[in-house]
Amino acid sequence: MFGIVMAVGLALDQLSKYWIMGHFAYGQSLPIIPNVFHLTYILNTGAAFSILSEHTWLLVVISLFALVGVFWYYRKTPKEQKVKRFALACIASGAVGNLFDRVYYGSVRDFLDFRIWPIFNIADCFVVVGVGLLIACLAKEIYEEGKAEKKGEK
């Protein structure tokens, strides 16, 4: 499953970025739903919210360490925990998509513009969905452990 999620996520991310680069000039914006959702092509030299802008090398190193951690945790996660493994694959897919951009282009290609949020891309979506699912899985585990402990106390 990990490989499939990685391949699908990476393909969607890179194909969408390739399409944007081929159809938009840098900074060009196309309203899809005016003042709500636009396609706006920008380059982001930082991480989320442009944190660490102009520190591409540091972001590459951080991404590589994060990927090692995700792969390690994935291997430790039992196969029965499918949602958690899916979440980790999503995180890895998004991280690889943006890592590719940083290494190859020196910045990340962003284009999804909801006007009330910084502009982002498909890789970012995979990371956010993955992190959200992972948090939900971990919260459920903590809750279930707490219930089991309470039963043991009675």
Strand order of the largest sheet: 1-2-3
What is the SS-derived class?
alpha+beta
Question: Helical region count?
Answer: 4
Weakly predicted, low-confidence segments: none
Q: Note the overall shape.
A: elongated
Q: Main beta sheet: strand number and arrangement? A: 3 strands, antiparallel
Q: Into which percent range does the helicity of residues fall?
A: 55-70%
- Total number of beta strands: 3
What percent of residues are in strands? Answer: 5-15%
> Nearest-angstrom radius of gyration?
18 Å
Number of individual domains: 1
Task: Compute the average pLDDT.
Answer: 93
H and E order: HEEHHEH
- Whole-Å distance between the termini? 41 Å
Describe the structure.
This protein is an alpha+beta fold. The protein has one domain (2-149). It has 4 helices and 3 strands; from the N terminus they run αββααβα. It has helices spanning 2-23, 56-76, 82-105, 122-153, and strands at 29-33, 37-44, 108-113. Strands 1-2-3 form a 3-stranded antiparallel sheet. A hairpin with a 3-residue loop joins β1 and β2 (37-44). α1 (2-23) runs parallel beside α3 (82-105). The protein is elongated, with a radius of gyration of 18 Å. The model has no long low-confidence stretch (mean pLDDT 93).
